[in-house]
Specification:
By secondary structure, the protein is mainly alpha-helical. The protein has nine helices and two strands; from the N terminus they run αααβααβαααα.
Length: 169
């Protein structure tokens, strides 16, 4: 079983800092966060959440925001877009591979405090949720931070990483 100690030693993420409450967002909250933190218009946020039918935005949309904010030299907003993309494609990866959950944007409201969260705890909770879902007979894919799972397997099952060479090959 992957533990917090494993997460801390493999990823070097904090596990003892503040916990962030990633609660389900209403449609209005999902529209408010990009408007406030990514500096998009209310209409853009409304159109994006309507297109994704929930508290999500498209990954390409976040990338476009990042590029335009960099061009406009709006570095704080560009950093928020980049970090949203980063955590959603790594720590909190989902099976859609195209949608980013807006709830994580709230952790980047104040970038000075973003490093003060127990990211290791959140990553472990997420991978446990994904492993739980993967155990169901109706599930065909696994999501989550699979690099963490792979590194843990590599560290705890030596037979997996022992190399066997065949000199006759």
């Amino acid at each position: 079983m992957i533990t917090l100690d494993d997460v801390s030693s493999i990823l070097h993420f904090p596990i003892t800092d503040a916990l962030h409450n990633f609660h389900a967002l209403s449609t209005e909250e999902a529209r408010f966060l990009p408007t406030k933190l990514l500096e998009v218009s209310a209409e853009e946020a409304r159109a994006e959440t309507a297109l994704t039918r929930g508290a999500y935005v498209r990954l390409g949309w976040v990338q476009d925001i990042y590029e335009t904010r960099c061009q406009a030299r709006r570095w704080i907003v560009a950093a928020r877009a980049y970090l949203l993309h980063l955590v959603d494609c790594t720590l909190f990866a989902n099976k859609s591979a195209t949608y980013v959950h807006v709830v994580y944007l709230d952790t980047f409201r104040d970038l000075a405090h973003s490093g003060g969260y127990a990211w290791g705890v959140a990553a472990l909770v997420h991978i446990y949720d994904q492993l739980d879902e993967a155990c169901r007979t109706t599930t065909r894919q696994l999501a989550g931070y699979l690099t963490l799972l792979q590194c843990w397997i590599y560290e705890h099952f030596p037979s997996v990483h022992q190399c066997v060479t065949d000199d006759t090959y």
